[in-house]
């Protein structure tokens, strides 16, 4: 970030310095004003959705009983013990089952929650072993993936893929637990609730690891089967002559808000898979041998014919809700400044791309009722966990304000695109907030 800032022109760098400091901390404060008769909603995020997973913030040292290898040996010992009452050794274990990429979840208002909210459906190791035994499956340590532990707890958390065990669905359903799409949980998460945001990050990390295990069953060098190592944190080829080490893959994607030279308009695009009236930022995968900045310029040019000059880093976000063939995308966000204005849309990539004024984008932020969509999704999760299936288009609830549909809306606060756009729209307000905060100016070295 310091290097990139030093490359800016003097006229630009001073105005962006305070904004960059704010964004480096990943603390986003936005106020969206609705009509005069309605309330004001503030969105405060300490980190992006799926980031800030405190379970994996520090890996315990090998001698710690909660470390991956030591905990796995304890887990295997407990699995061999036929008497669940003997499983009282330290640490204890909790397991999060996944079914076809969907984590087990429950619904209900927690402490301080005024409306329905979801939480992960952790079960004990003994219960997990019992559920699988009822389906004729013997649980093994190799089927478990280590997620981590919290320093203040003597508990180790694991994930397991039970996609082949359809009989578990009614068994969990009888306890008002259900497997829910991670995207649904993402929308249902109250971004002001630190606990809920933390659980979403854990679920995203677990899904990414399990999906990676699913797509890396064979060695890419010799074709032999791979086996999990280090409690599922990596894999290794089973061929004694090969033994290639395989680590979880991360798929970097650049996502950029392209801004005109006057800083008055932003380039937003639509894909055919988008719900009606939704517009978002351009994005694309990074190619081998390409820098992040080069990828921003190439993707923008290929998809819209716009030439980009200056590229400014904004923030990044893990994105584990893509297709299972791409286990874990990392969205790397930028503000990019256009050198040309004429749009030439690649119709194979995009449905449309247009310049939008700051005022029009601000209106899209103003009228998109993200909180209403969150509450609607939370109710849906509650219904699913109670066994009530009810078809509902959650996206429609993003755009309704007093019965009036808005011309456009952008992705909600769970997406980095939202923050790329809103930080540009409210750039003046953020700079004003920074000026009042009386933070020391000049160096970013202490961030």
TrEMBL record:
Residues 248-378 form the Nudix hydrolase domain. InterPro entries: NAD-cap_RNA_hydrolase_NudC (IPR050241), NADH_PPase-like_N (IPR015375), NudC-like_C (IPR049734), Nudix_hydrolase (IPR020476), NUDIX_hydrolase-like_dom_sf (IPR015797), NUDIX_hydrolase_CS (IPR020084), NUDIX_hydrolase_dom (IPR000086), Znr_NADH_PPase (IPR015376). Keywords: Hydrolase, Magnesium, Metal-binding, NAD. The keyword GTP-binding does not apply. PROSITE patterns: NUDIX, NUDIX_BOX. It comes from the Eukaryota. GO terms for biological process: NAD+ catabolic process; NADP+ catabolic process. It catalyses: a 5'-end NAD(+)-phospho-ribonucleoside in mRNA + H2O = a 5'-end phospho-adenosine-phospho-ribonucleoside in mRNA + beta-nicotinamide D-ribonucleotide + 2 H(+). Its EC number is 3.6.1.22. It is an enzyme of class 3 (hydrolase). One of its GO terms (molecular function) is NADH pyrophosphatase activity. GO terms for cellular component: peroxisome. Its cofactor is Mg(2+); Zn(2+). Belongs to the Nudix hydrolase family. NudC subfamily. This is NAD(+) diphosphatase.
């Amino acid at each position: 970030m310091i290097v990139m800032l030093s490359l800016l022109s003097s006229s630009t760098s001073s105005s962006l310095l305070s904004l960059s400091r704010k964004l480096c901390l990943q603390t986003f404060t936005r106020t969206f004003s609705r009509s005069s008769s309605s309330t004001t909603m503030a969105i405060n995020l300490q980190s992006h959705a799926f980031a800030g997973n405190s379970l994996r913030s520090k890996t315990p040292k090998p001698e710690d009983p909660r470390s991956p290898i030591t905990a796995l040996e304890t887990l295997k010992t407990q699995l061999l013990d036929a008497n669940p009452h003997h499983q009282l050794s330290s640490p204890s274990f909790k397991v999060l089952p996944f079914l076809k990429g969907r984590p087990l979840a429950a619904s209900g208002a927690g402490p301080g929650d005024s409306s329905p909210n979801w939480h992960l459906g952790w079960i004990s190791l003994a219960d997990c072993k019992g559920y699988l035994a009822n389906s004729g499956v013997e649980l093994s340590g190799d089927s478990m993936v280590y997620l981590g532990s919290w320093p203040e707890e003597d508990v180790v958390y694991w994930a397991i893929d039970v996609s082949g065990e359809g009989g578990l669905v009614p068994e969990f359903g009888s306890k008002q637990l259900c497997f829910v799409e991670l995207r649904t949980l993402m929308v249902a998460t109250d971004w002001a609730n630190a606990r809920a945001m933390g659980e979403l990050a854990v679920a995203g990390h677990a899904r990414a690891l399990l999906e990676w295990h699913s797509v890396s069953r064979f060695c890419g060098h010799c074709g032999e089967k791979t086996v999990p190592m280090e409690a599922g944190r990596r894999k290794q080829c089973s061929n004694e002559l090969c033994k290639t080490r395989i680590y979880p893959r991360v798929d970097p994607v650049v996502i950029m808000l392209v801004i005109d030279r006057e800083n008055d308009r932003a380039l937003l695009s639509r894909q055919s898979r988008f719900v009606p009236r939704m517009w978002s930022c351009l994005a694309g995968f990074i190619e081998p041998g390409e820098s992040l900045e080069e990828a921003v310029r190439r993707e923008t040019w290929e998809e819209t014919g716009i030439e980009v000059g200056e590229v400014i880093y904004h923030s990044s976000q893990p994105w584990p809700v893509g297709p299972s063939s791409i286990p874990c995308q990392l969205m790397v966000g930028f503000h990019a400044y256009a050198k040309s204005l004429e749009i030439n849309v690649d119709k194979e990539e995009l449905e449309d791309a247009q310049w939008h004024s700051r005022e029009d984008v601000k209106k899209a932020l103003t009228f998109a009722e993200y909180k209403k969509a969150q509450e609607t999704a939370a109710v849906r999760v509650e219904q699913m966990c109670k066994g009530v299936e009810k078809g509902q288009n959650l996206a429609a609830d993003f755009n309704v304000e007093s019965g009036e549909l808005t011309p456009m809306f952008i992705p909600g606060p769970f997406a980095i695109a939202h923050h790329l756009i809103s930080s540009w729209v409210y750039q003046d307000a953020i700079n004003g907030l920074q000026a009042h905060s009386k933070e020391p100016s000049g160096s970013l070295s202490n961030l």
